[in-house]
């Protein structure tokens, strides 16, 4: 895995030397859009050297080509060999690792599966409006391959990243890992089981890794966001996004930048006494 350095903007001065992450090296997966993208920009602004990894090479180039101190690395987190190669390259080029953000993930295994999910959600919403009953049947519609694909990305992917990152974090003298889960892992709502199962698995893995790695000064935490205003969220019909927001006491979606601030807290010295925890920036959806 070869890191591609971003091209600095000539009009931009050196990145902040007094930032909360000054001199830290951070690997962020899912960094071409949504939470991962905002986190990469936030961490770079706080002085970190950021390795922005994502399956979409085009998305990385589009979003980070002129960003200062962000290096891009096309990566499929479901490919364990590619993950190992990425962290070997980080060590060769930077000699240290301080922060890992596991933000890569999928809601559904394919476009067709996502379209079926949206259709079912719309039917549920309209039935509720009219006072009719509607009972979605997700179980019978999930193939082995669909369940496995979501697990490969959402659960195996973070495992591969943590496994590959831990030795380098130990050699650095410690650091922080934060995994992006979902409020769906904390609540029971009708949806295809691969998503809450994969995200709940991330929380169990977070606690186990936190216990194992604490003696090495490595903190492992997770976040479980509710509705977040990402491109994927905006692709949903307005009646569905409205229903999701309506479930929250705070009646709006979070911005990706707000979620990035939670990740910054857990990755910085401000969160130094947190490990094995799950914070849920969900507008009160989960309390």
UniProtKB/TrEMBL annotation:
Keywords: Oxidoreductase. The keyword Oxidoreductase applies. CDD domains: SDR_c. GO terms for molecular function: 3-oxoacyl-[acyl-carrier-protein] reductase (NADPH) activity. Its EC number is 1.1.1.100. It comes from the Bacteria. Pfam families: adh_short. Belongs to the short-chain dehydrogenases/reductases (SDR) family. PANTHER family: DEHYDROGENASES, SHORT CHAIN (PTHR24321), ESTRADIOL 17-BETA-DEHYDROGENASE 8-RELATED (PTHR24321:SF8). This is 3-oxoacyl-[acyl-carrier protein] reductase. The lineage of its organism: Bacteria, Bacillati, Actinomycetota, Actinomycetes, Micrococcales.
